Amino acid sequence: MANETKLPVTKKTTEPAFAPEAWRPFEALRREVDRLFEDFGTEDFWRRPFRSLAAFEKAQKLVARPAVDVTESDKAFEITAELPGLDEKNIEVNVANGGLTIKGEKKEEKEEKQKGYYVSERSYGSFERYFSLPDGVDADKIEASFKNGVLKVTLPKTAEAQKPAKKIDVKAA
């Protein structure tokens, strides 16, 4: 027992198991407002001022730029955007002035009525992404498809752009 190490024991108080957050909805809001005022002016405040408000988080994810992949093949460029929760009627793809714009908007409303309570939630969010069209894209043949929350925009190359590069031999001078 000569090598025995004694560590201090601290007891952490916890909320009672019978009082979940759902029973006290204003407590979470009060704590969030208190934290907001405590953090005001700090670097953390300006990064994420409402980090635990679920509705704001949901809207924030949608308003943020969606994940996009741009790939190139011999015949076309392809832009793939992940847009979960959107329908094709809420997505707009436009080509103008040498650029491609993808816009989307989500409006979600939830209403629940039962004996003793009524809940109404609304969340809205939108995004817009702009891409300059590369040289050699046939703007008249651009196509877009939407399936399972993924938008694919195909930008076919012109016949001239599909030609392989011409190799030029270098001669000694």
Short note summarizing the structure:
It comes from Bradyrhizobium nanningense. The protein has 173 residues and is an alpha+beta fold. It has 4 helices and 7 strands.
Please explain how this structure is put together.
It contains four helices and seven strands, in the order αααβββββββα. The chain has helices spanning 25-39, 43-47, 54-63, 159-162, and strands at 68-72, 76-82, 91-96, 99-114, 117-132, 143-147, 150-156. The strands form two sheets. It has a four-stranded antiparallel β-sheet with strand order 1-2-7-6, with no helix packed on it. The chain has a three-stranded antiparallel β-sheet with strand order 3-4-5. β3 (91-96) and β4 (99-114) form a beta hairpin. The longest helix is centred in the first third of the chain and has 15 residues, at 25-39. Mean pLDDT is 77; it is low at 48-53.
Please describe the structure with a list of short key phrases separated by commas or semicolons:
Immunoglobulin-like; 173 residues; elongated; alpha+beta; 36% strand; 4 helices
Topology:
Layout: H1 25-39, H2 43-47, H3 54-63, E1 68-72, E2 76-82, E3 91-96, E4 99-114, E5 117-132, E6 143-147, E7 150-156, H4 159-162
Antiparallel strand pairs: 1-2, 2-7, 3-4, 4-5, 6-7
InterPro entries: A-crystallin/Hsp20_dom, HSP20-like_chaperone, Small_HSP
Domain SHSP: 59-173
Protein name: Molecular chaperone Hsp20
